[in-house]
Amino acid sequence: MKRMRREKQKRSRWAALAAICALALVYGVASAQVAQNPKAEGGRWWKDVSFLAGDDLQGRMTGSGGYQAAAGYVAGRFKDEGLTAAGTVGFFQPVKFKSLTLDEAYSSVELIHGSDTTPLTLGKEVILSATGDSGDELTADAVFVGYGISAPDANYNDFAGLDLRGKIALYLTGGPDTIKDPLRAHEESSGERWKAMKAAGAIGSAAILNPANQEVPWERIAGNRRRPSLQLADASLRRDEGREVSLSINPEDADEFFAGSGHTMAEILADVKGKQTLPKFPLAVRIHVKIKVNETDMESPNVVGELEGSDPELKKQFVVVSAHLDHLGVGAPVNGDDIYNGAMDNAAGVAALIQIARDFHESKAKPKRSVIFVALCGEEEGELGSWYFANHPSVPPEGIVADINMDMFLPLFPLEYLQVQGLDESTLGDDIRAAGLADGVKVIADEQPEANRFIRSDQYSFVQKGIPALAFKFGYEKGSPQEKIFNDWVHTHYHEPSDDIYQKVDQEAAGKFCYLIYMLADRVADDAAAPTWEPTSFFRRFAAK
Fold first, then answer.
1. Which numeric CATH code is attached to 104-291?
2. How far apart are the first and last CA of the chain?
């Protein structure tokens, strides 16, 4: 049914742009007053979600025509809600990328054990990813390095005593329980992990996906492996430099890599379950890779609007409210549907941006600091748009004092609990607690810290530049029906075509969330004191740098 609707709805890019103009006129008629009316606000929010996650925009993949149309729509809505252009080109901040596509017809992966060679099937046993430093062909030894983490703060080093020079580092995703969050989350980030591997001499990496914390099943990951990968054209901002090989290994086939080593995947998973130190050992097989990468230049914008502050001095400081606009585009069909609409991930967050701007506009609130609204590109490719903005902001960088980020906040049930990532890391935690108390919402810490969500979205780009930040998910009581709804959604709809506008969503709860984040942003922007990191926060070190 959805495919039939989609075929009827498909139109040219120009028709989509015409629809943008028509919808902008509709949205130009707004109520003269703002009051907390979650039902009305949720209805407006859903109209924006419905456009951004509609089939016409083809999943908004960064650089695509659908993304460009979405960016144009958001710029128009920002203007409707009283924001002024704050990009480098009007409302837009163009970001240059290299788009990398693997030529699978030429590429291959083989395991060499003595005189025997075992070819691996791309997509079934292993995924070979395109990197900017991939060569044509190489054969290398490999070493299993446990979790592949070096954390001097925790006196932990998976690379101690290992010779990785010119070799591929094979590791299990996740991290040891002996390293506490948020340090563990930071060290598990792809950039930090590769930096440690490269420092130890590795020329490539091979990740075995840990079934215990795998949100997306292998089949779904493999089905979309042919999507282009992106890297920033600005080489100084790359975090994977020097990686010649990047593999992902199906955990069900990991024993092919361990053959002859004296170790098995079952043994390693048993060590994980028993909270034992993982073994480190050289593999008995060598890895032979042929790889061909097609590279093209590409450009895609962040969308930036500003509400200027009212204080002559404090208006030179900026509170950033952000959400990523991109999603996965068109990919492997699931039940006949190949459009990955990204309604909750993250049309929902961008629609919330628009509603928060509206609340400022309609309330005529004039906070002392300026508020910057940013719809970001490239999040699904590794927070690239936010990393670019954090390093090359369209406003003076020294003025940015906070980031409030919204990514897949999941309004699937009434908003009674709000789980906040980064809650105890900065004084922003006090601000969201105060806003929640005023709105009858209980603010709680991240209920699934093992998922590392604080370092998996755009707020982390700001954190790494020393800027305090928060991110959000709807919360629940342990063992409640809401917990089941939350987890079922993640396992069923996350990065699936079914994350579309036909799923069940609590619009009124979303409206309440938008207003709550508006109150938070207004409070932070109007406070005489800028947010600061807590003395005990691990992330405080980035501000010191």
1. 3.50.30.30
2. 54
